[in-house]
Amino acid sequence: MRTVRGRIFTSLIIVMIFSVLITGYLFNRLIDVMLMDQARNQLRLQMTKAIDIIEGGNVGDLSTEDLELRFRDRMFYADFFVVDPSNKIVAAGDDDMEGRMVYVSMGPRDHFFTLNGQKMMYTH
Predict the structure, then answer these.
(1) Does residue 64 or residue 15 have the better pLDDT?
(2) What confidence category does residue 23 fall into, taking pLDDT thresholds of 50, 70 and 90?
(3) Helix-, strand-, coil-residue percentages of the chain, each rounded to 5
(4) Which residues in 86-98 are b (16+ Cβ under 10 Å) and which e?
(5) Whole-prediction pTM value?
(6) Parallel/antiparallel/unpaired status of strands 118-121 and 89-92
(7) Which among 10, 11, 39, 78 could disulfide-bond with 69, CB atoms 3.0 to 4.6 Å apart, if both were Cys?
């Protein structure tokens, strides 16, 4: 590596490695942002469906079968929690969750909270 050609070759390999790493990192971030955006849009659609169901009846009429969630071309059923202003769960997909207290900060940017050790996304 004492020749100029050897030094140029070494620097070219280093530059290629860094460019591949940076491209991989940026591609990973892009995919992550796209998936989160799709999840947020689907969650907003679910909220609209839930509001339509509640307006036609009461909170007890909601069920997980009514809230089909399509995400990355797969069908899921959205697990839902309806929280009143005092942070009490008044309706949920899991009947055991009703009546529990949940502490959610309704920040404009953070749409996640932890419940039973699981990270959950919410909308309001």
Answers:
(1) 15
(2) very high
(3) 50, 20, 30
(4) eeebebbbeeebb
(5) 0.56
(6) unpaired
(7) 78
* pLDDT tens digits, one per residue of 64-104: 666 666 666 776 666 677 777 787 877 777 777 777 887 76
Helix/strand/coil for 123: coil
Pick the closest to residue 70 from 37, 39, 112, 31 (CA basis). 39
Phi, psi of 79 (to 5 degrees): -85, 130
